Amino acid sequence: MGNKFRSIETKHYAEREAFFEGLKKLDRRAFLRVAGISAGIVAGMGKLTPQSFQLVNVAEAQGEKPKFSFAYISDTHLYENKLNDRFVRAILKAVDDVNALDPQPDFVLFGGDLAQLGQAGELKLGAQILKSVKAPIKMMVGEHDWFLDMGELWRDLFGAPNYSFDHKGVHFVVLNSIHEKDFWTERKLTPMERMKIVAGLDNGIQSRFEVGGEQRQWLQNDLAKVAKTTPLIVFSHSPLYKYYKPWNFWTDDADEVQAILKPYDKVTVIHGHTHQLLSNRIGNIQFHGMLSTAWPWPYAPEGLPALTVPMNRADPFSQFDGCGTGRMDVLESGLVDKVYNLWQRDPITVRSSYLASNGKQASPPKPKLPTY
Amino acid sequence: MTLRMKLLVVPCAALSFAGGVALATSPVTKPAPPVSEPLPKHVVPASKDGNLVLGLCDGETSLEVEGVKEGQKLTREQALRASSKLMADWRQKNPDALWDEVPGPALAQATPPNAKKSPAPAPQPNPGAKPASSDVRQGGVGAESGAKAVPQQQKAHLQTGHTYGAYSERDEQIWADSTQAFVKEGHRVFHDAEAVGGTVGVSCDMCHPDGANTHPETYPKYQVQLGRVALLRDMINWCIENPARGKPLADGDPRMRAMEAYIYAQRKGTKLEYGKH
Fold first, then answer.
1. Which of A127, A148, A172, B225 could disulfide-pair with A317, CB 3.0 to 4.6 Å?
2. Is residue B49 domain-resident?
3. Which domains does chain A have, with CATH numbers?
4. 3-class DSSP state for residue A2?
5. Which carries the bigger pLDDT value, residue A207 or residue B146?
6. Per the domain annotation, does B189 fall within a domain?
7. Are residues A126 and A113 in contact, defined by beta-carbon separation less than 8 angstroms?
8. What is the pTM of this model?
9. Is B273 a member of any domain?
10. What is the H or E stretch that residue B158 is in?
């Protein structure tokens, strides 16, 4: 299903992706040759400014080689196709993206919020589309998938919402971090009323996200057998830190979870939910947000982590602007360079060295027009 | 007070200021739904001779202008004479209203035939005039609103009479509640894909939580993608038509008005910067 639809943009980015991937394998002589060719191509196309094949980018591509890579698709917020094909087209584009990666990622993380209102038609549609992804899929749950039936169908389709696995020397943990304290029983809300309240980002009736005591205990037990020097990569739908409470860009027990992760040398948290370019570092933990395929969220009015270089304001006239997919390059060190593959923009990489140096090195490009 | 009073005595019968009066005296319990109720209107009595009849901003007093037929325009001199007469009537009906005497520069420049007359005549002692407390409405606020008690409560020597002469906390509460109801309706429409007329389940808040990134304070501005100067409502309609796939709303549509109210309310305190990108 996913391969039927290949937009011009998808093809363009696939070609460019392949170009940059190829560059990483070049020695200096070949680098100069390719740089010359690319400049020639650009001149031949009559472009004043080399857009995709900038020499600066070529130089940047010669960074530390990743040990391995994985990609992600996140926050697709699907309605059924007959109601809304907009978000369906976006996830198809995302599937094209990750299928076009060469070399293929070791796996593809789905970052949660597959559905918009947790309905069977939405979750099943998403499950069907994700079958077109060539690489293995690691599923994570989001609040939009959960609060209609409290995760019943999601678990049927995809299994347990929290689990861990080891891959090439890295210990991966997937959390269900979208638990909320019961706000519905006392109010006698129907499941759909509950779902719609949670689906409203600015709906203050709902509770704050939390990992919860039970799962924190599970995490503690899971990590007990992992050496402190083993790199950890944690997947969480909510940010696992406290950014902006009114919109649940927030995990209420973030401090407790961070305390569990603190003894480990190298920890990276990859989270969804915020639909924006978002970077943070708290002690030993580096945080990266994921892009949505459906729509970008504006930055919250306060609480933005100091290390975040925000993305340019999204163009409302372009369905895909500010949305996208991404790739995590896991370095030899076990830390992660995060590539934001922004559709219809040049990709932006937030390097672990940028976060590790507290913003002193490898700063990502600054935005021209930030959000209000 | 003086300036306001001068502005209020507009030589135009159609412009009635009774709106403020009605707002302040309407029942609190039911905040009016946006624009569904007609604004109060000061209906002036028709002239037997077909003369032009002007209404005073108190919503009650009127003046027949002899020599000018309905539909004809007043000359500036005639208008100034009429407004002076109406002003004098108002002051006679409101002898207790505090009043700052100021010279009338507009009249002096206009050099009307009766230029010697003071533009704002001193209140004439009129033993026959009824005291303000009887059937003359006190300054646009109903007796039940407690307006009279305000100076006492605040232990201040306050100007009284007419709409803003003395209004009580209750009045302010009514105004605030009415405004809040309007904003709340906007919140509802903003958060409801169907209410806004969308067909694909997309509501405004899905991209603009708490109205974020709507930046109403930057309109009007040149909207590059539209190739023209846009108002906030143009962008609201653009979003309704495109991401929400609905039909654009008319300017006077209660939903449009309410959404504008909601969006502006979210930006309270933000500096106005029209044209900003």
1. B225
2. yes
3. 8-57 (no CATH), 64-356 (3.60.21.10)
4. helix
5. A207
6. yes
7. no
8. 0.70
9. no
10. none
Taking the C-alpha atoms of residue A26 and residue A32, their distance in angstroms, rounded to an integer, is 9
> Does residue B148 fall inside a structural domain?
no
Chosen domain end from B147, B166, B185: B166
Q: How far is B30 from chain A (nearest CA, A)?
A: 25
CB atoms under 10 Å from CB of B130, counted, come to 11
Confidence of residue A30 (pLDDT cuts 50, 70, 90): low
Which of B143, B166, B189 lies at the terminal end of a domain, its last residue? B166
Tokens 């696992």, residue located:
A240
Using CB atoms, which residue from B202, B209, B218 is nearest to A84? Answer: B202
User: Could you give the CA distance from residue A152 to residue B131 in angstroms, rounded to a whole number?
Assistant: 76
- The CATH number that applies at residue B241 is 1.10.760.10
Cβ of B191 within 8 Å of Cβ of A200? The answer is yes
- Nearest residue on chain B to A292, judged by CA atoms? B207
pLDDT digits (tens, 9 = 90+) for A130-155: 999 999 999 999 999 999 999 999 99
**Which structure tokens are listed for B262?**
């909601």
Q: How far is it, in rounded angstroms, from Cα B107 to Cα A20?
A: 79
What are the tens digits of pLDDT across the range A153-196? Answer: 999 999 999 999 999 999 999 999 999 999 999 999 999 999 99
Count of structural domains within chain B: 2
A301 touching B, CB under 8 A?
yes
How big is chain A by its Cα radius of gyration, in Å? 20
Write the CB contacts of B181 (distance below 8 Å, at least 6 apart in sequence). B31, B32
